[in-house]
Structures are given as structure tokens and as C-alpha cells.
What does this fold into?
Amino acid sequence: MDIIATAYYAIVCAVLGFASSSLPSVWIRIGVGAVVGIAASNFLPILKSLIGAG
It folds into this structure.
């Protein structure tokens, strides 16, 4: 198990879950979730190389 990826996505999901409650419709929440998921998955390799874990 990759603890860095697990912790990273746990933080991203927690922040997204907290922020999504203020969005007005389910479709906006889905769209924001998709954009954040794509951005997070693209940023993870950069983050891992910055901390020397990947």
C-alpha cells in the first residue's frame, strides 16, 4: 500500500466533501469532483518527486 497516495487522496476527498455541501446542484458537485480528481491525479507524481518518494 502506498501511504503517500492514500493520505493525499484522503485529504483531497475530505476537502472536496467539506466544500461540496455549499454547491447548489448535484451536477455542479459532480463536475467539480471530476475536475478536482483529474487535477489531483496529475499533481500526485509531482508531489511525490518533490518529497523524494517517487
